[in-house]
Amino acid sequence: QIADGDVPGASVQAASEAEEKIAMRIAITGTSGLVGSALTLFLESHGDEVFRIVRREAVRGAREIFWNPDRGEIQVEALEGMDALVHLSGENVSEGGWTEEKKQRIYKSRVDSTRVLCDALIRLERPPRVWVCASAIGYYGSRDDQELDEDSPPGKGFLTGVCLDWEAATKPATEHGIRVVNLRIGVVLSPKGGAFPKMAAPFRKGFGGVLGDGQAYMSWISIVDLLEAIRFCILNDAITGPVNAVAPNPVTNREFTQVLSRALSRPAILPMPAFIIRLILGEEKSRELLLASVRARPKRLLDAGFSFQHPDIGAAIQWILRHG
After folding, report:
1. Residue 55 to residue 68: CA distance in whole angstroms
2. CA dihedral in degrees (223, 224, 227, 232; nearest 10)?
3. What is d(CA 65, CA 50) in angstroms, rounded to the nearest whole number?
4. Are 210 and 254 a contacting pair, CB within 8 Å?
């Protein structure tokens, strides 16, 4: 969660100052997670009304909407007339081993929950004008140093399959006339949780080093830019379909290691060989997460005029360390 003082201010990249002042009614799933909790505060700082979609009984008068995606239940009428819906909920892919049960939870929490929302939206008389549905750069699989944009074909692997079905689950809404944005989110860097504290921990103790051969590309985005990008997509009617939510300058693991080492004034002399990572995480999880190489570019955001506050990894890490 981001503290009030860390919520980014008004962005210079919105289409106009008038747009920045638009107050919207926005429903969000996943508001207890890193991105969802930060997005709630961020949107409220713009004067938007945020309605949390929650799995427990909704508290009357608290701007909450009940759903139980496992049972296909949702308060459909509560979504009537919303300006936007943002779908962020999903099982954490990095925690725990990738057992068949875990993989089922990863899949169902994304694909099945999206189908529940889609079924609800197409039944509304006044559906939200835009649905921003999370996806992930796992769509591209591991592609070495190949530059990828939203028109690049999908890769191979478990996460690619999840992303393909995840995005396909929104198609009935598109066919129903709802503008859908499939936000392919990269590694989110935040001072409040997620990947960065875990990546920085060994460096702080003097045990940092490259992963594998250090040549794998990481497509990342600061939490600040991700929040701005979500609201930008909501406001910009020209944006539709897949959108890479990544910074314009992906880095290799070796480059990331060097920048983080300098920022923390700690050595980076203990590499983690690939075979050790496979032993710890398992072959499939290590191949698709820590050792995967994704060099994605945010072409559609850049073409639409989006301006990143943290386009480079050095600036992002410095901001995170100041706010950690």
Report:
1. 5
2. -140
3. 11
4. yes
